[in-house]
Amino acid sequence: MIYASKNILQTIQKLKMNKFRKLENQFIVEGDKLVQEALSCVPGKIKKILCTEKSELYSTDLHGFAVFEISESDLMKISSQQSPQHSIAVLDGLDCSLIENPSEKIILVCDGIQDPGNFGTIIRTADWFGISTIVASKNTVDFYNQKVIQSSMGSIFRVQVKYVDLPEWLENSTRLKIGTLLEGKDIFAVQINEPCVLVIGSEGQGISSSVKDKLDIAVTIPRMGGAESLNASVATGIALSELSKVKK
Q: 3-state DSSP helix/strand/coil percent for the chain, to nearest 5?
């Protein structure tokens, strides 16, 4: 196995930056689990794989892929993690064509989600509920941010994320538009049996006023204690669980 060159290591370093990811239309994933998920879900997107001798991939037959050996010290230098997980891969950008599936009951919309850990968890939660499409406002955190990728636990390969002018997109959508607000109707009491859009607002500001204007229904998760608000990813899980039910 050939050792990774300095040029390869420098390219990976650059891909930590949003502007370079957009310029090259490439991103990186780290750790055996995520690299294996990429091999399973999007093998055609993989440009190269780097792994140490401790990686599960080191002795795996990866014929057809550009595979390089990397020392643990070099991996430590280029990794965004404090404890690197033995492998890293460079991928071409994922397809986000936003072809709406009419049979999909819910399209999840994220309005200004800033925390990468929250956004990654939201993507993972959407994947759990079988949602294949997330529409995001342009001020939502970058899909290819390393913390987003790590928090998604591989769900980025199964859930497409499309960044749009959100008010305009909602204006053109024929689906019922539901938003999570503190002053909305009790989500456990509403009856929703038609294709819908579920809008989740940012952690600090909630749903923006321009998006609120496009909503058909505002719902809330009833508060029973003294907490001021719910974490965006937690609220997403509760809302998706309720709206995914078939109510009679």
A: 35, 25, 40
Could you tell me if residue 101 is inside a domain? no
Segments of the chain assigned E as strands: 2-3, 26-30, 46-51, 67-69, 87-92, 106-111, 133-137, 160-164, 176-186, 196-201, 217-220
46/66 Cα distance (integer angstroms): 9
- 43 closest CA partner among 24, 25, 23, 66: 66
Query: Do residues 37 and 18 touch, judged by C-beta distance below 8 A?
Result: no
Sign of dihedral through CA atoms 155, 158, 163, 166? negative
Please report, for the domain that includes residue 192, its CATH number: 3.40.1280.10
Under 8 Å between Cβ of 231 and 203: yes
Q: CA 122 to CA 128: how far, in whole Å?
A: 10
Tens digit of pLDDT for each residue in 10-33? 999 999 999 999 999 999 999 999
Rounded to whole angstroms, how far apart are CA atoms 210 and 238? 24
Give the pLDDT confidence of 67-77 residue by residue, as tens digits: 999 999 999 99
Q: Is residue 100 part of a domain?
A: no
Which residues neighbour 155 within 8 Å (Cβ) at sequence distance 6 or greater? 123, 124, 126, 127
Domain end among 46, 62, 92: 92
| Residue ending a domain, choose from 69, 92, 115 | 92
Residue pair 129/240 in contact by the 8 Å Cβ criterion: yes
pTM of the complete model: 0.92
> Which residues 6+ apart lie within 8 Å of 244 measured at CB?
105, 106, 129
Q: Is residue 85 a part of any domain in this protein?
A: yes
Residue 121 and residue 65 share a domain:
no
